Recover the amino acids of this structure.
């Protein structure tokens, strides 16, 4: 029995052309015509124009490199339709982030006003 994770592992090996154990954006993009990349895109119901977004979504640590774990777990997450629980979690996370962002923005506005006032005082005393 061939598991989906094994399929993604084989795709990773084919895309990792320099056999470094990581896939860079350059490798990923260079292999766009490769059957493995096309199969991956088809399996995830994506097309060539989605390649950059796909790489960013898979690169969870922001290293600009995909290791085999990132690649497999990311592909497994993206495979299939979004479940309502997934969408609800995203919505919840966005609401939490917005609640934290508003006080920060207010604080920054106050700090900017203080800086502007200080600069005006300095400008008056110099000029």
């Amino acid at each position: 029995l061939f598991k989906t994770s094994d399929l993604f592992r084989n795709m990773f090996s084919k895309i990792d052309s320099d056999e470094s154990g990581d896939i860079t954006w350059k490798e990923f993009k260079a292999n766009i015509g490769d059957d493995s990349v096309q199969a991956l895109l088809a399996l995830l119901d994506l097309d060539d124009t989605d390649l950059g977004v796909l790489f960013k979504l898979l690169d969870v640590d922001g290293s600009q490199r995909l290791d085999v774990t990132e690649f497999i777990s990311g592909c497994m997450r993206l495979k299939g339709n979004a479940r309502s629980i997934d969408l609800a979690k995203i919505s919840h996370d966005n609401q939490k982030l917005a609640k934290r962002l508003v006080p920060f923005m207010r604080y920054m506005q106050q700090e900017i006003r203080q800086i502007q006032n200080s600069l005006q005082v300095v400008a008056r005393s110099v000029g």
In short: The chain has a mean pLDDT of 87. Residues 12 and 68 are 7 Å apart (CA to CA).
